[in-house]
## 1
Amino acid sequence: MDLSFTPEEERYRTRVREFLKDNLPQGWGAPGYELPKGRALVELLRDWQRRLLKHGFVAMSWPKEYGGQGASAVQMAIFNEECARVRAPGPLNSAAISQVGPTIMQHGTDAQKRRFLPAMINADEIWCQGFSEPNAGSDLASLRTRAELAGDEFIVNGQKIWTSYAQYADWCYMLVRTDTAAPKHRGISYLMVDMKSPGITVKPLRQMHGGQDFNEVFFDNVRVPRHNLIGTLNDGWRVSTTTLANERGTNALSQYVRYEQIFNDLVRLARASRRHGRGALQDAVVRQELARHYVDLQGFKYNCLRVFSAITNGGSPGGEGSILKLLWSELNQRMQETAMALEAAASQLTAESAGAVEAGRWQVSFLRSRAHTIEAGTSEIQRNIIAQRVLGLPRTN
Ligand SMILES: Cc1cc2nc3c(=O)[nH]c(=O)nc-3n(C[C@H](O)[C@H](O)[C@H](O)COP(=O)(O)OP(=O)(O)OC[C@H]3O[C@@H](n4cnc5c(N)ncnc54)[C@H](O)[C@@H]3O)c2cc1C
């Protein structure tokens, strides 16, 4: 594992730093910076994505012929790491750029590539992902939203849930059942649906931290042109597994930076807190908890480096990607719990309350962290993947 960077890579890092210094939204990342909400946040992130694009920092792993940068894994890792250091936001369409974009590039027609890719990287059109349903999350292949072919159109009926950004999205990439008689993985197709189509109802879901990031989406006889099918009919399951091989691992270095920052913030909170009438850092239990987080953070760091090293040597993260997901999501929850314990009675005060510690920001991140072990594959599912693909243990069912 050689972790040194070439002079050219160091110059690239300097270019990224200068871009971030000149372009980050005013005040971003500073304590007390108030994030705009709702549509105002969408417009801020749209502007941010366009600035990133202008300087060559959007769709970095996409080939140049599709408007990407053809960047190396090391350049992407440097960019992600520098963004994490200043807590910069991702582009508005980041999920689409890493998921449906590569899917269109690999399985789409030339007309689909021309129609959808430029508007995706320029943030002219926002995308949401319609995969999960009320009875199909971890077991996604059980999905029941139907799409029946009638001439040149599909007629879509059913419901999606937990659809992030659906209330702002122009397009939805979704999995639908097109053959009810086939085995469940073989009767699924991959469609792109215009969110302004008649028959679509979006109902925002309120989360426990007060935000409304995701939605229920209902489809009632929604007409979708057949040319919005990606790949062939009933091949959607295979099509949906497309991702750019090096995309996942290049995030590894930035993730370490992000959780190291939370750890440092936690130590600062402990220094400023009191327990049993004296400074919290004098308390053996607090010190042991912080030491445990630090040890876990170091374990996470070396796992990040292992994945990054595999990527730069031409490999792919495979099941080890699940180890990272499990480590960061559970470590972050434990750190957030320590923050609540340090705030003691004040942990009940929200941002609006007088006397809230650090403007109530730990309360929001504590509540938001509960979703980390659910979204993008639950902890139990990650453990199953690690058991089967990393440890080679047999399946139980
Ligand atoms: C913040 C957030 C944003 C999201 N955004 C989107 C989005 O934009 N688009 C989208 O399509 N989806 C989205 N999701 C949904 C997410 O993908 C699902 O919540 C996730 O896949 C889990 O599915 P589920 O909620 O149906 O839980 P279930 O699959 O019903 O699981 C319930 C419990 O059973 C356990 N379990 C299930 N199967 C097994 C098994 N085989 N072995 C052991 N334990 C098991 C799970 O670990 C969990 O504890 C989002 C979720 C969150 C939290």
## 2
Amino acid sequence: MKVHAIQTGTVEIKKNQMIGRGPKALRLVNVLLGTKWVEPVPIYAWVIEHKEGVIVVDTGDTARTSEPGYFPRWQPYYKFAVRFHVKPEQEIGVQLKKMGIGPKDVKKVILTHMHTDHAGGLYHFPESQVYVNIPEYKRTLGFQGQLNGYVPHRMPAWLSPNAIVFDNEGFGPFRKFWNVTSNGDVKVVATEGHTPAHISVISTIEDVHYFLAGDTSYSEETLLRKITDGVSPDPNQALETMRNILSFASQYPTVYLPSHDPKSEMRLKNKIALSIH
Ligand SMILES: [Zn+2]
């Protein structure tokens, strides 16, 4: 088994999104009105080459985000608070092809959550079984989904996700998990916060746990400093998840790989585990 990082372009967000500011009710307003931007951060997706078939974790984004009208024009977040930079050749399907991996080779696609920079590349995988935590999927649907910051009208028409069923109990601090593979070397755990039904994938190779963390934090640094982002609907839930991850990493060697940390790819390559003092 091997885990690869695929970078599908970059995204610019506000400083107030990276580092949530103010009371819960005002955090999103502070993101929208904030004037400071952070340096562009990568948009990573992950590819697990496994003997049971390729597993893709998140799909990165699509170059179509730069087409006028791709996002609902009335949604202030896209207008004022985010800038995507994705070129067609950076999309995941193109990059997988270069690695010799075609759509039929990808058995499973697992989404940590369905924000566009994680689900935008889904259309490359019409042959795969797509797994989403169903409460997350339901949160994306219809007008309410657009209000919640998703783009349900841009998801592939064939999309009918399989439920992630947490049918096992107790993996370190995580109460429930799902064994993705038959020997359990790939697992899904619940990591609520950034979205209420956000999940993470843990891929274990020779006792090292590669923690494909989605947006549980934007970087290892913000995890260690327990800084919640500015868009989590419930910052306390996000904080509890961060504590769980830190506790997990104190029990098991863990390479922490959030989707937007510029250092994630380097940590993956060099197997640099989270060190907790
Ligand atoms: Zn997100």
